[in-house]
Each structure stands twice: as structure tokens, then as C-alpha cells.
């Protein structure tokens, strides 16, 4: 799998729902063939990667009311 940019060159985004206290926040990078996710408290740590279509299914499920709507996908 080839990425268009490395994680260090990626533009990372934190949710607007995240508090400013640096608590339990995730960051997501866009513009890649996969969607990398990382812990905002450890930006040089490991990332999880999801196929773009799987990430879309996850977000759609959350928007519809939570993880219970994901149907085990």
C-alpha cells in the first residue's frame, strides 16, 4: 500500500469536540490512501490505519447514533 504523504508530512486534525485540556483526544490525517489515526498526546507514537471506505462507514455509524449502528463491520 502506497501513501501519498508520510505521517510526518501529513496534516493532522483534532476533533472540534476535543477539550483544550489535552485529555483523551485522537487526531486524524487526511489526503492519504489510508486514514491514519494517532493519540494527540503522543504525536510521534504509533498510528492506526484504516481504509478510507472503512473509516467512512465508522463515521456514518457514529453520526447515526453511535458504535452500535456499525453492525460489526
Structure in words:
By secondary structure, this protein is α+β, with helices and mostly antiparallel strands. Helix content is 18%, strand content 23%. The chain contains one helix and four strands. The chain has one helix at residues 52-64, and strands at residues 12-14, 26-29, 34-39, 48-51. A four-stranded antiparallel β-sheet has the order 1-2-3-4. The longest helix has 13 residues, at 52-64. It is globular, with a radius of gyration of 13 Å. The protein starts with 11 loop residues before the first strand and ends in a 9-residue tail after the last helix. Mean pLDDT is 76; it is low at 1-5.
What layout of secondary structure does this protein have?
Elements: E1 12-14, E2 26-29, E3 34-39, E4 48-51, H1 52-64
Antiparallel strand pairs: 1-2, 2-3, 3-4
Physical arrangement of strands within the biggest beta sheet: 1-2-3-4
Question: Number of helical runs?
Answer: 1
Sheet with the most strands, sense and barrel status: 4 strands, antiparallel
Range of strand content? 15-25%
Structural class by helix and strand composition: alpha+beta
How many E strands? Answer: 4
Alpha carbon gap, first and last residue:
21 Å
Alpha-carbon Rg, integer: 13 Å
Give helix % range: 10-25%
The overall average pLDDT, rounded, is: 76
Q: Regions with pLDDT < 50 over 5+ consecutive residues? A: 1-5
Q: Give the H and E element order.
A: EEEEH
Pick out its properties.
73 residues, alpha+beta, 4-stranded antiparallel beta sheet, 18% helix, globular, disordered N terminus
